[in-house]
Amino acid sequence: MKYPNFKDLILFEDNDFIVINKPPFLASLDERGAAGETNVLRLAKQYSDDAQVCHRLDKETSGALIIAKNPDAYRHASMQFERRKVNKTYHAVVDGHVIFDKLLVDLPILNDGNKNVTIDRAEGKRAETIFDSLKYYKHYTLVECKPITGRMHQIRIHLATQRAAIVGDDMYKGKPVFLSSIKRGYKLTKGEEEQPIMKRFALHARHLVFKGLNDQDIVIDAPYPKDFATLIKLLDKFDA
């Protein structure tokens, strides 16, 4: 993978914080078994010596990610996450025509380690997400997701419980979107194997609000990366 220039990812910067638009396929932090692999933390430390990543996005998830430039900023952001004061909004494309109107999914999540996450009412930790349908297509829906808690894979597993798996999320039975399935008369050349429109699951951290050290709101909008924007454009054209 060709790694981006860190400066090109920056959406916001002041003396205390940087917010980047994390590209897909770039880990937030060092991962087990991925020694020496480039990630957001390593890129950030090359740019600002004391940089610390304040929260995680799954490797495939793109979008707004907060980085602290000093220990005070890191503490300040961590407290906001702990007290659930950070306002996070994600966009996801899901299988099927699903109508969500401020649907609150309140299902506890158990993290078994090794990236294995299940709904477990007895042992799981509280997890809440609010879902709203933004746009309907013939075969898919663009959904706004607001996690109140911050559990691992929370949005992904909560959507799967509603029979609305994120497209391309094979861990939760989400199927990829192929152009042939939405474009009438689409033909592959002989011997060609069709690739999905997006080579990852369609989840993007779109909007973020948190407080700076001066207690003023920092409001971030992260534009869709190229693959997500292409998926939306093709759905608008062929599946509306």
How does this structure look, described?
Pfam families: PseudoU_synth_2. GO terms for molecular function: catalytic activity, acting on RNA; pseudouridine synthase activity; RNA binding. The chain is of the alpha+beta class and 240 residues long. The chain has six helices and twelve strands. The chain has helices at residues 6-9, 40-47, 71-82, 154-161, 179-182, 226-238; strands at residues 10-13, 17-22, 52-53, 62-68, 87-95, 103-106, 109-111, 117-119, 128-136, 140-147, 203-211, 217-221. The strands form two sheets. Strands 1, 2, 3, 4, 5, 6, 9, 10, 11 and 12 form a ten-stranded mixed beta sheet that branches. Strands 7-8 form a two-stranded antiparallel sheet.
Distance linking N and C termini = 33 Å
Question: How many beta-strand segments?
Answer: 12
What count of helical segments does DSSP give? 6
CATH topology title: Pseudouridine synthase
Helix content: 10-25%
What do the pLDDT scores average to? Answer: 95
Notable characteristics:
single chain; alpha+beta; Pseudouridine synthase; ten-stranded mixed sheet; 12 strands; PsdUridine_synth_RluA-like_CS; pseudouridine synthase activity; RluA_PseudoU_synthase
Question: TL;DR of this structure?
Answer:
This is RluA family pseudouridine synthase. The protein has helices spanning 6-9, 40-47, 71-82, 154-161, 179-182, 226-238; strands spanning 10-13, 17-22, 52-53, 62-68, 87-95, 103-106, 109-111, 117-119, 128-136, 140-147, 203-211, 217-221.
